[in-house]
Design goal:
The protein is α/β, with parallel strands linked by helices. It is 29% helix and 27% strand. The protein is globular, with a radius of gyration of 20 Å. The chain binds NADP nicotinamide-adenine-dinucleotide phosphate (NAP).
Length: 342
């Protein structure tokens, strides 16, 4: 640790899978985790160290988020690791920000809350400004989806179009994640897919539509409109689905594609194709292609998906604390930086 760096004091709100992984990483680094909150249930009252699978107590007990005394917590930032939609996390944001904590939220809808849910974003912004703190959404997209798009345009003197593509491989999902692969439409025939996944019906399609506008905002363009559609992905031959513990037949969907187009006032179009597929042993990736002068492509192969999102949540903490009050997006915070020296 270098002498000019004071480790931030962190509160974790939501002690599930990622909340615990982030807590472990912070403890490994020696950044103090000073409080943990969760909704009522068996996690409340447990020592966070044990709950997060460490072999020792931390002396930090998970508190019931409804009854905790937030004013008594001395933390620089609260990490909200509960739900995707900002509206569902409003109670968490309010409690932490009213106690003077900055907030970094892991929910997908928080990445660009202004686009995902402008009404809730305005409420969060007012709350954050009133308490002089920053609110930001973070996680894997920061490195995989947002910053490569901004960087690839860095050599362009003109841009005609930008294109983002990604593959999330559902093949490794276990039966415990059955709900997840079902939410991506796996196992549905064309008619069932149309009835439950088309348009904005899938619980996930709305989250991904924020990526192209987020990147265009980072590049300084003015987005005038975004459209999206959702399509099933069919394979010609039966495909094994680990999570559903059966073969998916050729007339059943092996996942879905969310196709997004954002138009800008400057005439540059930014498209996104987000694939969620039973893709066997194919490596998950994020790619960005810029058509302009100079045209280029960047491909990010995601080898450690969980480690990536955990690392980005940790590494963004100092940026969020240092950012101006209000709702800020990672596209405006500069590229993510390693905390390896701290
Ligand atoms: N940004 C990214 O790159 C990225 C990547 C992956 C996942 N995510 C998102 O991260 C979030 C957390 O994922 P996860 O896998 O860690 O989920 P998880 O294992 O279900 O953990 C969520 C935790 O939050 C608690 N919780 C839920 N609602 C709450 C509420 N209203 N108040 C207080 N606590 C509440 C749950 O409590 P109980 O279970 O005890 O009831 C659980 O402990 C999800 O929204 C997920 O989609 C984001």
């Amino acid at each position: 640790m270098t002498s000019d760096f004071t480790p931030p004091r962190v509160a974790i709100y939501g002690t599930g899978q990622f909340g615990c992984l982030i807590a472990r990483k912070l403890v490994e680094k020696g950044w103090p985790v000073v409080a943990a909150f969760n909704r009522a249930g068996p996690k409340v009252g447990q020592d966070l160290g044990r709950l997060a699978g460490m072999d020792r107590d931390l002396g930090v007990f998970v508190q019931d988020c409804e009854t905790a005394d937030y004013a008594a917590i001395e933390a620089d930032i609260g990490l909200v690791v509960t739900k995707d939609a900002p509206a569902d996390n409003m109670a968490a944001y309010t409690r932490l920000m009213q106690a003077g904590m900055n907030v970094l939220c892991h929910g997908g809808g928080a990445m660009y809350a202004w686009d995902f849910d402008p009404e809730t974003a305005a409420k969060i912004d007012a709350l954050a400004c009133a308490h002089g703190v920053t609110f930001t959404g973070g996680g894997a997209w920061d490195l995989g989806r947002v910053w490569p798009g901004i960087l690839i345009a860095g050599a362009c003197t003109t841009i005609h179009a930008m294109e983002h593509k990604s593959l999330t491989n559902l093949s490794a999902a276990t039966p415990a994640s059955k709900h997840l692969v079902e939410a991506y439409g796996v196992g549905l025939n064309a008619e069932a897919f149309r009835k439950t996944m088309d348009g904005n019906l899938s619980p996930y399609s709305f989250i991904y539509r924020t990526v192209p506008p987020h990147v265009m905002l980072g590049l300084g363009f003015t987005v005038t409109g975004t459209s999206q559609r959702t399509e099933p992905i069919f394979h010609d031959t039966p495909t094994w689905c680990n999570a559903l513990e059966r073969d998916i037949q050729p007339d059943e969907s092996c996942g879905m594609k969310v196709i997004v187009t954002a138009e800008t006032q400057e005439g540059v179009t930014c498209s996104g194709e987000f694939m969620f597929e039973l893709a066997g042993d194919r490596t998950e990736y994020f790619s960005w292609t810029v058509d302009g002068d100079a045209s280029n492509r960047i491909v990010f192969e995601r080898i450690n998906a969980m480690g990536t999102t955990v690392g980005l949540m940790v590494n963004r903490i100092p940026d969020v604390i240092a950012a101006p009050p209000g709702v800020q997006v990672v596209a405006k915070l500069g590229p993510p930086k390693s905390s390896a020296r701290f």
